[in-house]
Amino acid sequence: MNAPPESRAEDRPARLTVGVVGAGRVGPALAASLQLAGHRPVAASGVSDASRRRAAALLPDVPLVPPAEVLARAELVLLTVPDDALPGLVEGLAETGSVRPGQLIVHTSGRYGVQVLDPVRRAGALPLALHPAMTFTGTPVDVQRLAGCSFGVTAPDELRLAAEALVIEMGGEPEWIAEANRPLYHAALALGANHLVTLVAQSMELLRTAGVAAPDRMLGPLLGAALDNALRSGDAALTGPVARGDAGTVAAHVAELRKHAPGAVAGYLAMARSTADRALAHGLLKPELAEDLLGVLAERPATSQGDDR
User: What's the longest Cα–Cα distance across the chain?
Assistant: First the structure.
């Protein structure tokens, strides 16, 4: 009962001073969201012009200082740096003695759980992994998008309530991810979200080549319906020539892509093979139609005589 306020998360003041190490697209948005919940951003670090602009837009009047100074000022520190930079940052902060006992240190990497924070934990910090399953723009709209956003959360048992409370205060929904499952969890999100951007961008480029003046307007309703159907029905939502077994149509697609967008052929074939496998497994693609289709999809991009390099 006489332990100092910083010794346990549940003994902390209801409102915390917040610092951000790495003023990329994520950190300022999360700090701004925590500010709306009553916490007080007090410091951020960022060296690029883009980082400074983001901090100025989302955290006005919050000073930009070196990372060690951020830790000196804040009770809750958000480490919002790229995944590959996180282990080195954590080790450096621990080695320089910047960490205070009882300080909440939160990283937002999807790949890592809390083990990556072991160096600061040994220095007395309270480690949390809170990864927002959201794409960020670096603008104020990100704060609004956090409402209802799922967070992949990993925390020591004694800090689960603290982790849950922070996520809820940011308007999010905590989803507990086991330490060992963090890389798979992150791969699943990247497969769905990051690759979706590539597919949509390629589709818009091809539509422009085909003469469509407003490919975004054409794709919006189609992709919105496809996403909604997929989230509701999974593989049962599969439609299109692959799921129907229209081998001739798929062959025509491949031929056109080789002429107009050879860089998209490999991706089209890989996704079509995966789609065919799933359609077969779920009874959507008739086995008698699958043979010709899979023959088309087994083709490799031409490499003869330097025509396609």
Answer: 81
Confidence tier at 50 by pLDDT (50, 70, 90): confident
The CA-to-CA distance between both ends of the chain, in Å, stands at 72
The structure tokens 């709306």 sit at 36
Check residue 72 and report its DSSP letter. H
CA dist 51 and 138 (Å) reads: 9
* 143 and 58 Cβ atoms separated by less than 8 Å: yes
Task: Tell me whether residue 211 is exposed, middle or buried, using C-beta atoms within 10 angstroms of its C-beta: 0 to 12, 13 to 18, 19 or more.
Answer: exposed
Question: Taking the mean position of all CA atoms in its chain, how far away is CA 269?
Answer: 26
Place of tokens 């692959």: 242
Buried b or exposed e, range 165-194, using 16+ CB within 10 angstroms: ebbeebbbebeebeeeebeebbeebeeeee
Q: Considering the chain, what is the average pLDDT of its residues?
A: 91
What is the DSSP annotation of 88-136?
HHHHHHHHTT---TT-EEEE--SS--SGGGHHHHHTT-EEEEEEE-S--
Tokens 């289709």 correspond to: 293
The tokens describing 237, both together, are 């939502």
Measuring CA to CA, how many Å separate 197 from each of 35, 37, 44?
A: 31, 32, 30
Per the CB < 8 A criterion, the answer to whether 70 and 44 are in contact is yes
pLDDT digits over 113-144, tens only? 999 999 999 999 999 999 999 999 988 999 99
Q: Is 103 exposed, middle or buried (0-12, 13-18, 19+ CB in 10 A)?
A: buried
**Confidence (pLDDT) at 48:** 86
d(CA 281, CA 101): 54
**What's this model's pTM, rounded to 2 decimal places?**
0.85
